[in-house]
UniProtKB/TrEMBL annotation:
It holds the Pfam family Pyridox_oxase_2. It comes from Methylobacterium marchantiae. Its cofactor is FMN. Residues 30-106 form the Pyridoxamine 5'-phosphate oxidase Alr4036 family FMN-binding domain. This is Pyridoxamine 5'-phosphate oxidase family protein. The keyword Metal-binding does not apply.
Length: 198
């Protein structure tokens, strides 16, 4: 039988493992936390979910960053509520992570400039889509994307980096010998955790 992981029955190690998975996510394309699901709440109170690419996670700050179009529904929902949640499940290591927290759009500041500068051209192109994301089309191909460097640069005002500051984290490890579930809430600069019944 596979040996139990080091973090089993060690809540501090479980938290460290959770952040290691999140911090590795942006670099490792096959990591489940490379493309977590992002949840927001819309103007009717209904939950909305979609996949995003996690660009950066920072354990010390407790933050996660992704990018989106400021014309998108998710940007409007984050602007209206200031809240978001993220979820991922890594079937290889049998770990589910749930994150909820506050969320802030960065459009015109240094953080957004740096994020834009660090984006690949193939990503920047998306921010020049016309009409904007979510607009109804007469046919599936009735939209355009910028083709020249100058036209791609014009998409910058549509770009925003979103930083989620986690206020609650939840970790679930599945194992036949006994699942382990834990949750943490942010207390100042640190986390207070507890085991939960799975
Ligand atoms: C693999 C994958 C990665 C995606 N990454 C992003 C992303 O990083 N940012 C983003 O805004 N949308 C991303 N999308 C598209 C969203 O899932 C969604 O369809 C789109 O942004 C519209 O969402 P909204 O109307 O809720 O704003 C991705 C979709 C897939 C399938």
């Amino acid at each position: 039988m596979t040996p139990l992981p080091d973090f089993y029955d060690d809540i501090e190690a479980s938290l460290a493992h959770l952040w290691r998975l999140l911090e590795e996510g942006p670099r490792l394309r096959r990591n489940a936390f490379h493309m977590p699901a992002l949840a927001t709440v819309d103007e009717t109170g209904a939950p909305q979910l979609r996949t995003i690419v996690l660009r950066e996670a920072e354990a010390v700050a407790g933050t996660l960053r992704f990018h989106c179009d400021r014309r998108s529904r998710k940007a409007a929902e984050i602007a209206a509520t200031g809240r978001a949640a993220l979820h991922g499940y890594d079937s290889a290591s049998k770990v589910q992570i749930r994150i909820s927290g506050t969320a802030m759009l960065h459009t015109d500041d240094a953080l957004a400039d740096e994020a834009w500068a660090g984006s690949l051209v193939m990503s920047r192109v998306c921010y020049g889509v016309a009409p904007g994301p979510g607009v109804e089309l007469a046919s599936g191909d009735a939209y355009s994307l910028p083709e020249t460097d100058a036209a791609i640069a014009l998409g910058r005002p549509n770009f925003c980096a979103v930083v989620v500051t986690a206020t609650r984290l939840e970790f679930l490890f599945l194992d036949r010998r006994g699942h382990r579930r834990a949750a943490w809430t942010r207390e100042g600069a640190g986390w207070t955790g507890t085991w939960l019944a799975p």
